[in-house]
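If you are new to this repository, start here. Below is one unmodified record pulled from the training split, so you can see the exact layout before writing a loader.
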Amino acid sequence: MISGKITLLVADDHTIVRRGLVSLLSLNPELSIVGEAGDGREAVDLAVKLDPDVVLLDIGMPVLNGFEAAKQIRRKVPHAKILALSAFDNDEYVLEVVHSGANGYILKNTTADELSEAIRSVHNGRSYFSSSVSRALFEEYLKNENPTKNGDDTRLVPRSPLTTREREILQLIAEGETHTQVAEQLHISVRTVDTHCNNIMKKLDIHDRSGLVTYAIKNGIVIIPR
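And here is the target side for that same chain:
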């Protein structure tokens, strides 16, 4: 924390939205904006580099979506709190965010006061969800998170059969990147990308690009506004 202030990294791929958030939050004397990210991978890299107290993370970003970015930030910067930001009050998104390790979920139509309160809450170790988000659904998720308690292995959000790396690659493929472009972005060989893609298709039993894109959209790997 800088001079008693909460240090904050703001990640949103829409420049106008991101700059608006930064301008708005900069007016709050409790906060210090230490960085901005325009995609999920940059958010992870900056979180590691800048070590912020809180990451305000849009879930619908390119290159690496907010769900995957949250998982990586949680693993690499475990003490950082993550507040997910979304335009959508969607139960599936909320549950996936919780599963990704975020500490809260707030909608983009919130007020400045509520946004500041959400940042303070997650920084202080509490969860925060926009009032319109179903708290009952969140509580139901937590109840079902440990199926051994009631012997029921049914989960509200099925665990993905894909690894984090496979989900990264699937997102890039679904966004239209070629195997060569994916290899360049992830700093791996094209052969490794090919191997991952083959594994993805085997695990999902999907053997064409359109099917992979459909799976990515349905499972929140690529976020399509609706």
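Two things worth knowing about this chain: The domain at 164-218 is CATH 1.10.10.10 (Arc Repressor Mutant, subunit A). The chain has a mean pLDDT of 83.
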